[in-house]
Amino acid sequence: MNTYATQMEAAKKGIITPEMEIVAKKEYMKADKLRELVAKGEVAIPCNIRHKNISPEGIGSGLRTKINVNLGISGDCNHYEMEMEKVDLALKFGAEAIMDLSNYGKTNEFRTKLIEKSTAMIGTVPMYDAIGYLDKDLLEITAEDFLKVVRAHAEEGVDFMTIHAGINRRTVEAFMRDKRKMNIVSRGGSLLFAWMMMTGNENPFYEHYDEVLEILRAYDVTISLGDALRPGCIDDATDAGQIAELIELGALTKRAWEKDVQVMVEGPGHMAMDEIAANMKLQKRLCHNAPFYVLGPLVTDIAPGYDHITSAIGGAIAAAAGADFLCYVTPAEHLRLPDILDVKEGIIASKIAAHAADIAKKVPHAREIDNAMAKARHEVDWEEMFKLAMDGDKAREYFESTPPSDRHTCSMCGKCVP
After folding, report:
1. Which residue from 40, 206, 258, 385 has the least number of CB within 10 angstroms?
2. Last residue of a domain, one of 360, 376, 401
């Protein structure tokens, strides 16, 4: 029988868990070094005790940059089979996390099947699910109702949850003083803001934060502290609302660690390239080096249809500057819900950003596959190139569409000098 409730509690007690052993092997790190990082909160291993099929991953300092894929059932796209195809695609291309953002119908049925199927960690945003799960209008939902949804997700086996606990009366005041172009673009944040304005009450996730932590601790669910006031355009980046919330998230991080609950902190959104590195350093400082989970950041607002690229540019810069976890963005961002091809494009773009950052951060062995690709190219070994490529099927398709007359040459650069 385990003598600990969470990975963090075990780490603080000097215990190396089976999950730590697996992650340490994946990361080429000594298990005791990893244990020390988990104990300090600088690495999280999101791993609900009820998610039996999971292949544990670590997120944080000194580890490979991980990526997350968003999907789920919604009113405009309630195709169960298509969402499961997206799950298969995410697992095929090595996404370490999948967030179920379902907000329509019997979301628990989809989530239960997803957790049974997925070896990747599963995340949710309970606020998204609250209205559908509870079958109530927003104004009728009570603080106890919100906690009921958190408990349900934890019991189902969710590994990490986005909880928007940092948008409280203080941060709202800062947000209201400093006018934005885009206001609140976080769906969870906007729902909570509306609930607070309608009821006159404090954010229930902030007011009842200790109760939230008790639920999460019981199942070893990692709290992903959501950035309800993230910027929705580059002109809103690094404003008073964003920074005020970040300060609150730093305090909430320490409170979670005191309860042995693992933490990730979520970050911006949209941001000009020259602000990204400073924001990563600011987050790490204010949030005590907790793992940082960023959406993008998207570095320009004028490329709808190509936001997997704007996001990958920002994600690579962010991860190289200290971010630990990238949420993918698809070409459909800002336009419609993504289809299968959009999901694939988003995954590959995010994987490229993460890998490029790992090379820059000198993550152990990150460069080895690139060196192997260089060797295969030098030897004009096409089969090895396809094997090493991030998307070997696409590489082969391009090559075979107009193959060179001599397979030992390259149609782009001719016969290579030995």
Report:
1. 258
2. 360
Instruction: Look at residue 89 and tell me if it is in a domain.
Output: yes
Whether 326 and 374 share a structural domain = no
Specify whether 188 is located in the same domain as 208: yes
Could you report the per-residue pLDDT of 224-268, keeping only the tens digit for each? 999 999 999 999 999 999 999 999 999 999 999 999 999 999 999
Q: Which H, E and C letters describe the chain, residue by residue?
A: CCCCCCHHHHHHCCCCCHHHHHHHHHCCCCHHHHHHHHHHCCEECCCCCCCCCCCCCCEECCCCCEEEEEECCECCECCHHHHHHHHHHHHHCCCCEEEECCCCCCHHHHHHHHHHHCCCEEEECHHHHHHHHHCCCHHHCCHHHHHHHHHHHHHHCCCEEEECCCCCHHHHHHHHHCCCCCCCCCHHHHHHHHHHHHHCCCCHHHHCHHHHHHHHHHHCCEEEECCCCCCCCHHHCCCHHHHHHHHHHHHHHHHHHHCCCCEEEEECCECCHHHHHHHHHHHHHHCCCCCEEEECCECCCCCCCCHHHHHHHHHHHHHHCCCCEEECCCCCCCCCCCCHHHHHHHHHHHHHHHHHHHHHCCCCCCCHHHHHHHHHHHCCCHHHHHHHCCCHHHHHHHHHHCCCCCCCCECCCECCCC
Give the pTM: 0.94
Number of domains within the chain: 2
Same domain, 319 and 412: no
pLDDT above 70: percentage of residues in the chain: 95
Domain co-membership, 254 together with 308: yes
Residue 133 belongs to a domain: yes
Domain of 89, in residue numbers:
7-360
Are residues 309 and 388 located together in one domain of the fold? no
What mean pLDDT comes out for the span 267-275?
96
Mean pLDDT of the chain: 94
Q: pLDDT tens digits for 80-130? A: 889 999 999 999 999 999 999 987 666 888 899 999 999 999 999 999 888
Query: If you average pLDDT over residues 187-193, what whole number do you get?
Result: 94
Assigned domain for 1 exists: no
